[in-house]
């Protein structure tokens, strides 16, 4: 019901768009599997209304999500595919947490009717640890086509500082046999001053999971992070803390040839007034075995080394008026890239808030020039504590479209809503209508 916030893709892999549908978001934590890739908890640096001001945009940090609910009821382009019905059961029984989800998707055009099932059982062990299993099953109706996975994971926590995590999963798909495993082992240490972590992930070439999110297969990945938090007493009236951090990622193919290498060297400063700044250098290595396109321009396959230098920041986001921005420059594949991002949010009163964000990429490659623009504006108005109106207008130069999403929401009883949504897309050059839809939806929570 809520529109996706559009993104510009500068990588050769699919972008991850978060789930927004309430049915799949409720109690979704039980379906998390394994441990996320090593990530650095740097607070809310650059958190804008729409997105995080990412120190390294489009970087593939999460190599595998075992279950990703957007594979159900949505096409690759984000368009809705009708769902006939479904059920979800989640809860706890003693030391066990369980979750089951079964959805029947209808046929739409060339997309056949399909059943989706995921089952999850997790058990608490020791003082603060857990082990579990997960099964996913996708079956195309009236067909022999299916895709299944089964996996086990474990998360061990030792005291307040040390965690050890891992998983092992196997996929089953007609026509694919052997080399169908995925596994990860990760360790993290964290105290008030240091954050240290390391991760090793392997995804074999036939690990085909149609109910998950896996940008690339046939890889090995090594990732490590080191961060130090310093609270300078001399400047404590101005600076809350300073956090230099380093992150290194190596991605190898099945023959152990390096495909991608990142080396991030960043300095973050958190101010007492709520403002934040981060600056740094992002060295990269990419090996292209085949060309890939950036806004229609094909990048020549070979190996590339390039650097990006950036600075980003935001004012106190809790203020009535706040702003954020990011600027970066440096070599990019066969040429250079300059990127600009700026945004602001204004709260008129406790009922009305507005925000706007603009992104521009100016890329000059040996193969051609790319200019990308992305604009998003949002208005939120609360009539009462149970009645809301939200509007999102976006422009994307890559798709050459303007899109609008207007949503009216009434909470008619606790955890029960009525939605009326209007969506429209128009060609940005001719102004002609691409599509529009008016949708009504009602949810009702049955409780004893």
Summarize the structure.
By secondary structure, the chain is an all-beta fold.
Protein described:
This protein has 448 residues and is an all-beta fold. It has a domain at 22-313: Porin (Beta Barrel), CATH 2.40.160. The chain has one helix at residues 22-25, and strands at residues 83-93, 96-105, 114-125, 129-140, 146-158, 162-172, 181-190, 194-203, 219-228, 239-253, 258-271, 276-287, 292-294, 297-299, 303-314, 321-332, 335-347, 352-365, 368-384, 387-396, 401-413, 416-427, 433-442. A hairpin with a 2-residue loop joins strand 19 and strand 20. The longest helix is centred in the first third of the chain and has 4 residues, at 22-25. Residues 37-52 have low confidence and may be disordered.
CATH class of the domain at 22-313: Mainly Beta
**Succession of helices and strands:** HEEEEEEEEEEEEEEEEEEEEEEE
Which residue ranges are poorly predicted, with pLDDT under 50 across at least 5 consecutive positions?
37-52
Mean pLDDT: 90
Share of residues in strands: over 45%
Describe how the helices and strands are arranged:
Layout: H1 22-25, E1 83-93, E2 96-105, E3 114-125, E4 129-140, E5 146-158, E6 162-172, E7 181-190, E8 194-203, E9 219-228, E10 239-253, E11 258-271, E12 276-287, E13 292-294, E14 297-299, E15 303-314, E16 321-332, E17 335-347, E18 352-365, E19 368-384, E20 387-396, E21 401-413, E22 416-427, E23 433-442
């Amino acid at each position: 019901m809520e529109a996706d916030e559009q993104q510009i893709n500068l990588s050769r892999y699919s972008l991850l768009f978060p789930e927004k549908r309430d049915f799949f978001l409720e109690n979704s934590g039980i379906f998390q599997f394994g441990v996320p890739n090593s990530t650095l908890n740097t607070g809310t640096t650059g958190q804008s209304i729409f997105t995080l001001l990412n120190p390294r945009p489009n970087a593939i940090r999460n190599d595998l999500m075992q279950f990703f609910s957007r594979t159900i009821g949505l096409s690759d382009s984000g368009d809705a595919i009708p769902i006939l019905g479904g059920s979800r059961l989640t809860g706890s029984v003693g030391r066990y947490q369980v979750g089951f989800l079964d959805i029947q998707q209808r046929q739409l055009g060339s997309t056949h009717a399909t059943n989706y099932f995921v089952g999850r059982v997790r058990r608490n062990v020791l003082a603060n640890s857990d082990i579990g299993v997960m099964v996913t099953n996708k079956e195309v109706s009236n067909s022999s086509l299916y895709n299944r996975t089964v996996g086990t994971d474990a998360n061990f926590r030792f005291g307040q500082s040390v965690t050890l995590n891992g998983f092992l999963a196997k996929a089953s798909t007609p026509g694919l046999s052997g080399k169908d495993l995925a596994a990860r082992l990760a360790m993290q240490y964290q105290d008030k001053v240091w954050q240290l972590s390391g991760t090793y992930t392997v995804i074999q070439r036939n690990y085909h999971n149609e109910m998950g999110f896996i940008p690339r297969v046939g890889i090995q990945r090594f990732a490590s992070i080191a961060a130090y938090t310093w609270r300078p007493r001399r400047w404590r009236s101005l600076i809350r803390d300073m956090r230099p951090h380093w992150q290194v990622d190596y991605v190898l193919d099945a023959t152990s040839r390096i495909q991608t290498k990142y080396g991030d060297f960043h300095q973050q400063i958190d101010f007492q007034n709520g403002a934040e700044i981060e600056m740094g250098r992002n060295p990269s290595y990419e090996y292209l075995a085949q060309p890939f396109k950036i806004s229609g321009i094909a990048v020549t396959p070979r190996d590339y080394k390039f650097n990006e230098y950036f600075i980003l920041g935001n004012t106190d986001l809790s203020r009535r008026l706040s702003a954020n921005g990011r600027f970066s420059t440096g070599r990019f594949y066969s040429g250079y890239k300059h990127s600009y991002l700026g945004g602001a949010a204004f709260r008129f009163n406790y009922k009305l808030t507005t925000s706007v964000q603009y992104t521009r990429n100016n890329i000059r490659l040996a193969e051609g020039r790319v200019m990308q623009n992305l604009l998003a504006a949002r208005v939120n108005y609360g009539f009462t504590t149970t009645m809301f109106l939200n509007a999102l207008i976006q422009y994307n130069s890559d798709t050459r479209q303007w899109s609008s999403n207007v949503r009216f929401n009434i909470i008619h009883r606790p955890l029960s809503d009525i939605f009326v949504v209007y969506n429209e897309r128009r060609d940005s050059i001719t102004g002609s209508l691409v599509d529009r839809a008016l949708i009504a939806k009602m949810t009702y929570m049955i409780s004893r």
